[in-house]
């Protein structure tokens, strides 16, 4: 434990956890599985009375950093990059709100002002995307 190889594997696991949940939310089940296995391992470390309590605390903190914080930061970074690069209008714009569409270059609503609240006498347009 706490060797460079151990840290590398723990960090790689955290990185791939972020990748699995970024691809599809089915990756959430992988995230839960790894979390349950981690709890099981921490419980067995805690039961070993020959080790000092701080050893368990160090294991806990290492796993928090590598298996919770690292995937959360990477997941947020993936979406930040995604939204910075993909800012042009496309054929799926109708799925998104008008406020989001106003941020897409090439969209008919690009840079349109979107009021936060509807005022009395305002013209309101309702749209339905699904055709039954």
Architecture overview:
With about 130 residues, the protein is mostly helical. The chain has a domain at about 5-85. Helices cover about 60% and strands about 0% of the residues. The chain has 4 helices and no strands. The longest helix has about 35 residues, at about 55-85. The chain is elongated.
Question: Which features would summarize this protein structure in a list?
Answer:
single chain; 132 residues; mainly alpha; 4 helices; 0% strand; elongated; Protein O-mannosyl-transferase 2; membrane; ArnT-like_N
Write the layout of secondary structure elements.
Layout lengths: L3 H20 L3 H21 L5 H33 L12 H4 L31
Helix pairs in contact: 1-2, 1-3, 2-3
Question: How do you describe this structure in short?
Answer:
By secondary structure, this protein is mainly alpha-helical. It is built from four helices and no strands.
- Beta fraction of the residues? under 5%
- Can you count the helices? 4
Tell me the number of strands: 0
How helix-rich are the residues, as a percent range? 55-70%
CA distance, first residue to last residue: 58 Å
Order of helices and strands: HHHH
Largest sheet: none
- List low-confidence stretches: none
């Amino acid at each position: 434990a706490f060797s460079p190889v151990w840290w590398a594997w723990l960090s790689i696991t955290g990185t791939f956890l972020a990748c699995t949940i970024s691809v599809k939310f089915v990756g959430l089940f992988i995230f839960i599985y790894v979390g349950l296995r981690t709890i099981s391992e921490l419980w067995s470390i805690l039961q070993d009375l020959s080790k000092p309590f701080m050893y368990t605390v160090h294991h806990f903190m290492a796993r928090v950093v590598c298996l919770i914080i690292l995937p959360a930061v990477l997941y947020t970074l993936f979406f930040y990059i995604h939204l910075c690069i993909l800012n042009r209008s496309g054929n799926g714009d109708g799925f998104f709100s008008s406020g989001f569409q106003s941020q897409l270059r090439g969209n008919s609503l690009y840079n349109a002002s979107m009021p936060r609240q509807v005022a009395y006498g305002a013209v309101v347009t309702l749209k339905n995307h699904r055709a039954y």
